[in-house]
């Protein structure tokens, strides 16, 4: 990936290193999502996938899968797609499965290579989501504050960010909450709902956030990181790596 990342996207790494050793408006293609949906439905009209195994299966609520081996994309969040083609098809199924707000996993949103040297590096099927109401889940990456946070970055996996490589620029969502009081930092799973903005902008040679949501409503869920192993305990595993909820840094 060739990109000039804005340092402010990753200023959250500073407290991690301390605490551990460790517009120009872009034209949207006519209906790229619909085209992918039609292609997916033609190849797989039932929308079936093999039943998930291992840790991924353990994170699914059986009540959300009424038929064994058939995924209900109108309820399922975490995507198990691997290749770029699979991630694009998974995203198309989610759009086809329900009305707005669409339930979207950022893993599928990031299923493409970003190159800021292109005049328009964002693919059509992603641009087609601009202006759509969506619901996404992930984890907070606070910039500086740990209390009364109104704007923060949401990433798919806190476990991966803390113990692995930082997310790519097309795997980060900038969130601005509707609640003027904001929220305190938490490592619980955060579910956000709002109107997605997909924008390619550069300022002083640096790439701005590609995905943005403003006037966002949210709710807190139990810790459910799709990358963390089943044996991982967030209450102890992040000790000394990220701030505990409600703590002062």
Indicate the structural class: alpha+beta
Overall mean confidence score, pLDDT: 77
Molecular shape: globular
How many distinct folded domains?
Answer: 1
Descriptive key words:
249 residues; alpha+beta; 5-stranded mixed barrel; two-stranded antiparallel ribbon; 19% strand; disordered N terminus
Structure description:
The chain is α+β, with helices and mostly antiparallel strands. It has one domain (7-47, 73-237). It is 22% helix and 19% strand. It has helices at residues 13-19, 32-43, 54-58, 84-97, 106-109, 124-127, 158-163, 234-237; strands at residues 102-103, 133-141, 151-155, 172-177, 189-198, 202-203, 206-207, 211-221. Strands 2-3-4-8-5 form a five-stranded mixed barrel. Mean pLDDT is 77; it is low at 1-5, 10-30 and 43-68.
State the gist of this model.
With 249 residues, the chain is of the alpha+beta class.
Give the topology, please:
Blueprint: H1 13-19, H2 32-43, H3 54-58, H4 84-97, E1 102-103, H5 106-109, H6 124-127, E2 133-141, E3 151-155, H7 158-163, E4 172-177, E5 189-198, E6 202-203, E7 206-207, E8 211-221, H8 234-237
Parallel strand pairs: 1-2, 4-8
Antiparallel strand pairs: 2-3, 2-5, 3-4, 5-8, 6-7
Helix pairs in contact: 2-4
């Amino acid at each position: 990936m060739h990109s000039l990342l804005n340092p402010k996207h990753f200023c959250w790494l500073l407290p991690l290193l301390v605490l551990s050793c460790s517009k120009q408006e872009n034209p949207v293609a006519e209906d790229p999502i619909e085209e992918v949906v039609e292609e997916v439905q033609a190849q797989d009209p039932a929308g079936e996938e093999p039943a998930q195994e291992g840790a991924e299966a353990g994170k699914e609520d059986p009540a959300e899968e009424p038929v064994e081996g058939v995924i209900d994309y109108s309820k399922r969040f975490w995507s198990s797609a691997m290749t770029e083609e699979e991630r694009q098809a998974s995203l198309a199924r989610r759009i086809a499965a329900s009305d707005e707000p669409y339930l979207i996993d950022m893993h599928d949103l990031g299923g493409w290579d970003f190159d800021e040297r292109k005049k328009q590096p964002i693919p059509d099927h992603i641009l087609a989501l601009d202006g759509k109401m969506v619901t996404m889940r992930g984890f907070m990456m606070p910039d500086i504050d740990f209390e009364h946070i109104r704007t923060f970055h949401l990433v798919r996996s806190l476990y991966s960010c803390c113990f692995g490589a930082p997310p790519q620029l097309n795997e980060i969502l900038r969130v601005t909450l509707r609640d003027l009081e904001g929220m305190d930092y938490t490592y619980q799973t955060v579910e956000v709902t709002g109107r997605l903005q997909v924008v390619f902008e550069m300022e002083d040679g640096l790439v701005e956030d590609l995905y943005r949501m403003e006037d966002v409503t949210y709710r807190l869920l139990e810790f459910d990181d799709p990358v963390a192993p089943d044996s991982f305990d967030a209450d102890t595993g992040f000790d000394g790596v990220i701030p505990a909820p409600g703590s002062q840094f």
